[in-house]
Structure formats: C-alpha cells, structure tokens
Amino acid sequence: MSKRIREDKIRCDACPVMCYIADGRIGACDRYGNVGGKIVRCDPLTILDRRLEAGGAVCAFLQSDWDGSLAGDDVFVSGVGSGTTYPDYKPAPFIVSREVEGVDVITVVSEAIFSYCGVKVKIDTDRHLGHEGAVVRAGGEVVGHVTTSEYGSQMLSLGGVDHLTGGSKAEGRVTCDALLRLCNREAVELCIEGGAVVIVQAGQAPIVDGVREERMRVGCGSATIGMFASQWQGLVDEVVVVDDHITGVVSEHQAGKVLNWADTGIRIKGRRSTPGRYFQVAGPGKGWGGTDIKDPLTILNPWLEKKGARPGLTLLMVSTTGEHHGYYVLDEGLVPQAAPLPDALRASVDLIAENCEPALCTVLFAAGAGGSLRSGVTKNPVKLTRSVQALKTHVTCGGAPAYVWPGGGITLMVDVTQMPEGSFGYVPTPALVAPLEFTLSRDDYRALGGHDGAVRSVADILEHGGEYGAEVRIVGPVRDGGDE
Ligand code: SF4
To answer: Closest residue (by CA) to atom 4 of ligand 1?
Structure first.
C-alpha cells in the first residue's frame, strides 16, 4: 500500500489484523469503522435493564428518559458493543461501578477475542445422526465431530483451536463462520460423515435429513416401561418399547414383575442386559426408537409356548416418542398378526407422546478466557484467575451466567440463547469475539491489583461513552427460550 493511500486511512488496533480504514468505511470484521477520522464500534454498547420487559428496548435518542443512575442491581453494562482491550496492556473498555445492596460492585466489561473456542451442540432426537467420532462438515470443511450421546440427545463438538488454526486457511475460515452463526442463533447446515444432514439452530427444533424433529423421547425403553407399566396392565398381554439403546419388555421387566405380570413366551433379539432390558436389538438409524427398523416384528424371535405364548395373546409395540406403534395378536401358529389399536390402548400411546418434551437444539459457547485479556482487568493476571476460581469474581457473557470449569484457567461455557441478540462477532485471524464481564466487589478488585483509576459510573458512561464511541442501547433481559 502506498504511503499516500495509507495517510488517508487510520489504523484499527482492536485485533491483530490491524486494518487501515478509510473515512466512512468499515474494517474486515464489520465491527469497527472510521467515522470522521475516529475508529468507532459500529454496534452500540448494550446495557441490560431488568426493569424493562423482555424485548423492551430504549433507543439511543431516548436515553434522556431513562434513569440508570438509580437502578442499582437492575442495570448491567454488558460487553456487547463495548470494544476490546486488545492488545491488552490497557484497562478494559469499561470498568463500571454500581452500588448493589450497599456494596460497591465493579464490573469489568469487554469484548474478548477467543482463539480458543468452540460450541457444544445438543440435538434432541432419537434418530441416529452419525457414529460417535464421525467428522462433522459445514460448507465442505471439517468443523468438528460427533461426541457422546446423552439421554434423548446427540451431541456435537464443533470448532476449537485445532479447526480454527490447525488446518487449512479454508477450514479455519469456515469453522469460524459456522461458530459465529450458531452462536448468533442462525440456522447452520451440518453434514455428518456416514450419517445425517442436520440443520441446527439454537432454541429451534433440529431438521434431520429434511424432516423437522417434533419430540424428545420420554425416556429409554426401560424407563418408558417403568413409567407406564401400570397403565397397560389389564389392557394388553405384552408391551415392547423399541429403543436403539435399551429396549424394554414389560412381562420380564422389574416393573412388570412387581405388578405380577404373566410371562408371555416372547423372545427378543439383541443382548440381554438385565430382565426386560435389551441392548442392540437392531442397528442405529432413523426408524423405530432410533433403530434402523421399519417393521418392529424383525426384533422378535419365535415365541415359546411353554413359557406362556398362546393364540390370541395381544402385543403392543411402541417407540420411545410414541411416534411409532403397532398392535398385534398371536395367531394359531404363534405368529403376531397386525390388528387395529384398541381405543383403550390409544390413550397410553398418546400419553407417551404427551410426556415428550419439544425437540430443541442447544448451543453452548465454550471458550478459554485465561489469556492476555486478563490484563485488561488487573495488572497481575493470575490473581483474576484465582479470584474466579475462589468464586469471588462472577463471570458472565452478555449478562448471561457462565459456567466456569473447575481446575486451571478460566474455561467457560454459556447458553447462547441467554445472551442478547447479535452478541457475537469475529476477527479474520480467525477467532470469535464475545462479550465478557467480570463482576466483583470493589474491595476484591483493589486486592487483585485492578485498574482502580479507570473505574466509572453508569451515568458517566452514558454521558461520555468510551474509546470506541458513545452509542448505547438499553434492552430488557433475555428470558428463557431466547427472546430478548
Ligand atoms: S478486523 Fe476488525 S477489529 Fe480487527 S483491526 Fe480490522 S476492523 Fe479492527
């Protein structure tokens, strides 16, 4: 770049990219611009006011009508729109003092650049999305993998420093973009090797191979037997709850035994764990109960007459969501024949469905905040780490409580639906940018070597703004479910 062109531009030093930005233009991350020869943050500083209704917002031009000075604990200056401390030798953009129940409380506010970050995605579905360890792609690039299944959900681990920095430039760029969109609650299509294509959006139902998932299962097959055994007694001779993990059989299950359920001579394929609980009755898939079967009778071996099988014996087979069900009667040869579901049993199938929760995608942002940004809080960074670990310093992201992992460092996780809309940004290094606040008493802040001289009141911030501008938006809190 020629000297003359560069003289017309000014340098943004809010991240290592150090863009030179011409007047009226914005930098590579769309978050900073040159306004009349000054670098400003393009988004306003977000202040949360718990007295406002969820979704209620006070626009910048109405600030004069808004009284934050009397608000105490109700008003919280979040990191959203605050700017970064990069390169971190200086105090954080805002170090805010508030009086809460007679105690002077400090909140250190910034937008942190996270080179070490990713998301843990929980997808409520029984449908098999892919084997544990299978790679997950977005836009053709590997961005993560399938991790352990949880109870009624399948989990993905996406991003992380290996994908952001350890692969090709394209892998890092696409990973950063997928993380950014997931964290900002946008829909992202993910392709699981050897498995499904799933559209994930925080707070919304997953879409698996084009089908929107409706229900999260009521429990595993064994748990379903435990919950509903007594409601089936007297209405049907046998019940099998088909589940890829633990298929339940009521006549053998402990719940059935306690109810003196009669033997039926049923025999289930797969590996018997304990009475009435079977593993691996079929392969994983998108059929009944997360198995690959379309016909549930394929998991049955021939019935045993000497163990109670008889012509006319009735059988209900149902999946863990109630989505699949079938009713059968044994014929003279002890072969189940499909029959209409009696009305008396329909209520129990409906009850399974009723007890299922709506299927959702959950996105937790997971990141390490133990790096140089701590210098924006204190001149002695390890004291911040120790203060967080001692629970003297409370960590939030955009006002949402963060879970901090025990052990070394400040490794946090936060539910993105609890954060204000548009909380996340990125820099092309690549890394994500997320709001981060450390809150502690002023006495503790001084004790850990905090930048006490940089402490300001909310009123002062409203009047004078900060290094990157003075625009403010005041919004109501985020409620469960993600609505502001
Ligand atoms: S990428 Fe953004 S934060 Fe980084 S220097 Fe450019 S404008 Fe500033």
So the answer is: 15
For residue 157, the tally of other CB atoms under 10 A from its CB is: 17
The structure tokens 């099988």 sit at 309
Strand order in the sheet with 411-415: 211-212, 207-208, 197-200, 188-192, 135-138, 141-146, 153-159, 117-124, 361-368, 411-415, 403-404
pLDDT single digits (tens) 370-390? 888 899 999 999 999 999 999
Best CA proximity match to 369, nearest among 352, 381, 351: 381
Cβ partners under 8 Å of residue 460, min gap 6: none
Q: Which of 152, 153, 136 is nearest to 144 (CA)?
A: 136
- Cα of 234 from ligand 1 centre, angstroms: 70
Q: Is 27 in the pocket of ligand 1 (CB under 6 A)?
A: yes
**Distance between CA atoms of residues 71 and 290, nearest Å:** 51
Distance 78 CA to ligand 1 centre (A): 20
> DSSP labels for 254-287?
HHHHHTTPPP---EE-SEEEETTEEE-SS-BSSS
Is omega for the bond preceding 87 within 30 degrees of 0, making it cis?
yes
> What are the structure tokens assigned to 473, written together?
């938006």
Please tell me the total number of residues recorded for the chain in this structure. 484
Tell me the pLDDT tens digit for each residue of 393-452. 999 999 999 999 999 999 999 999 999 989 999 999 999 999 999 999 999 999 999 999
In angstroms, what is the span from residue 5 Cα to ligand 1's centroid? 18
Which residue, judged by its Cα, is nearest atom 2 of ligand 1?
29
Copy the structure tokens of residue 417: 């639906």
Q: Mutual orientation of helices 221-232 and 343-354 as an angle, nearest 10°?
A: 140
CA proximity to 277, closest of 237, 222, 206:
222
**CA 205 to CA 13: how far, in whole Å?**
40
**C-beta separation of 440 from 98 below 8 A:** no
Mutation test of ligand 1: which of 9, 17, 41 has the most ligand atoms closer than 8 Å to its C-beta? 17
DSSP string, 353-421: HHTSEEP-EEEEEEEE--SGGGGGTBSSHHHHHHHHHTTSSEEEETTEEPEE-SSSS-EEEEEGGGSPT
Count CA within 13 A, CB hemisphere, residue 352. Answer: 28
Q: Distances from the Cα of 365 to the Cαs of 134, 357, 372, 416, in angstroms? A: 21, 23, 20, 6
Q: 309 pLDDT exceeds 80?
A: yes
Count CB-CB contacts under 10 A for residue 265.
18
End-to-end alpha carbon distance in the chain: 44
399 CA distance to ligand 1 centroid (A)? Answer: 24
pTM of the model: 0.92
